[in-house]
Write a structure and sequence with these properties.
Structural class: mainly beta
Shape: elongated
Helix content: under 10%
Number of strands: 29
Number of domains: 3
CATH topology of the largest domain: Immunoglobulin-like
Radius of gyration: 30 Å
Number of helices: 1
CATH class of the largest domain: Mainly Beta
Distance between the termini: 108 Å
CATH architecture of the largest domain: Sandwich
Length: about 300
């Protein structure tokens, strides 16, 4: 007599499909989304809210039968209906002193209605880790601006070694306090977005994206003719007053031994600044400002005799 195997090929394939189809929960009856951030900002009470969303994928789930629990450090805790909408469950966990990381997973209980009655089922999520950090970014003053703009960042836990990066390239950063820092928009190609991060001893923290806009800049005179040891005033004018902290004009040159000049910053509330450029060793070259003008770069020829 031929005996049908306990697990048919169809059942096996269905089980494999169900296991791979969902990212967070392996059940084919439910869609479960973990709403808990993988990084939690530190708070004085050390109480953190864990949340998940449970959505039925079939009409055969018995109304009101869905319940959720969370397992933390081997202890099972009942979750309650949250305030974020239907199907959201929450649990508030107080992190023990000295801990900054923990692992957890969810258990979801529910019932399926069918012709023969009700079948109770249970699903488990994978183990997930989250950590509490003392440094985090709350907001960036704005997400776009021209080259040279000073942009403020507000958060918590900033250190003196923290550096802002545009697409992994360090930019000039001013560490003001543990809750605030600023950076100057670097001389990069305009008209595109850059990924901004904060790097330091505490690791890497995303800040957001920043769009560098084209800027108009007038330079007078348009060329410099200097004598060795002599000087000549050079005026930079922007179309509108500089924002808080001033606007940095990142001036570079291909004849550093021939040109002696201070850092150029248009003061806050003003739209122009004049600096004295001194002649060094005799030579011929240029001053360059990236991010300005119709071509994206302004060139000022320099001759030192």
């Amino acid at each position: 007599m031929h005996h049908q195997p306990v697990f048919s090929l169809t059942r096996v394939l269905r089980a494999v499909f169900c296991a791979a189809a969902l990212a967070l929960l392996a059940g084919c009856d439910l869609k479960v989304t973990d709403l808990t951030p993988k990084v939690l900002p530190e708070n004085p009470s050390r109480i953190y809210t864990f949340a998940l969303s449970v959505t039925p994928k079939t009409t055969t789930i018995a109304p009101g039968s869905i319940a959720a629990r969370i397992v933390v450090d081997g202890q099972i805790h009942e979750m309650t209906a949250g305030n974020l909408g239907k199907g959201v469950f929450e649990y508030e966990f107080q992190l023990p002193a000295g801990r900054d990381e923990l692992a957890y997973y969810y258990i979801v209980d529910y019932a399926i209605e069918h012709g023969g009655g009700i079948t109770r089922k249970q699903e488990y999520t994978d183990i997930t880790r989250t950590r509490v950090v003392g440094r985090y970014v709350l907001t960036m003053e704005t997400n776009r601006g021209p080259v040279g703009s000073r942009i403020s960042v507000v958060g918590r836990g900033f250190g003196s070694a923290d550096v802002v990066k545009f697409d992994d390239q360090p930019v000039r950063t001013l560490n003001e306090s543990s809750n605030a820092l600023s950076f100057y928009v670097p001389a990069v190609a305009t008209g595109r977005n850059y990924r901004v991060t904060l790097e330091g001893a505490a690791g890497s923290s995303p800040i957001g994206t920043f769009r560098v806009d084209p800027a108009v800049l007038d330079v007078n005179p348009a060329r410099l003719a200097l004598t060795q040891g002599g000087s000549q005033p050079l005026t930079f004018t922007i179309p509108s007053p500089a924002s808080s902290g001033g606007q940095l004009l990142d001036v570079t040159t291909d004849v550093p031994d021939s040109v002696v000049m201070p850092e150029v910053i248009v003061p806050e509330g003003r739209n122009s600044v004049t600096i004295d450029v001194k002649g060094g060793k005799p030579g011929t070259g240029s001053l360059f400002l990236k991010g300005y003008g119709t071509t994206g770069e302004i060139t000022i020829p320099v001759t030192v005799k």
